[in-house]
Amino acid sequence: MTPPVKSGPRYNKMIQSDKVRVIDDSGENIGVMYTNEAIEQAAGVGLDLVEVSPNADPPVCKFLDVGKFRYEAQKKANAQRKTQKTQDIKEVKMRPNIDTHDYDVKMRNVNKFIENGDKVKVTLRFRGRELSHQQLGMNLLRRVQEDVEEIAKVEAYPRMEGRQMLMVLSPK
Questions:
Q1: pTM to 2 decimals?
Q2: N or C: which terminus of the chain carries fewer CB neighbours within 10 A?
Q3: What angle do CA 78, 81, 85 make, to 5 degrees?
Q4: 69-122, pLDDT tens digit by residue?
Q5: Cβ of 121: how many Cβ atoms within 10 Å?
Q6: Which structural domains are found in the chain, ordered by start?
């Protein structure tokens, strides 16, 4: 059975290269030396030899405290995750013979969603005989498209899926 794969940077005996470029704890470039020799020097200072750039030739290693290095990397990743904006898809459902006030309320929601940076999926559900009057649905979706023209663009043009017509809008 193989041992579990370690995540994070390689350090000390895990470094597989024979020679490494070494940078000490104050940031000075010491130069290229054998890995074992570099590990001994790092231990002499009370730190670990951590591989910071494994793809370089030879790999670049620094004298660091591994625990502190991992902790800082984790904090940086969490901070990036916190500032990242996720784009949700909000759905607004309508019927082809929607009344004007109801339409205004739905459009207020669509505008609010788009200004928050979310995509909006406009779903138009047909029931019974409404299915034979699909041009009413197309006219309604065209009206929605014209009303949000300044703040949104159509990402997916109106299409039929079974008994409903769908259109996706995204912020400009």
A1: 0.55
A2: N
A3: 160
A4: 889 889 998 988 888 777 789 999 999 999 999 999 999 999 999 998 899 999
A5: 17
A6: 12-82 (3.10.20.80), 89-171 (3.30.110.10)
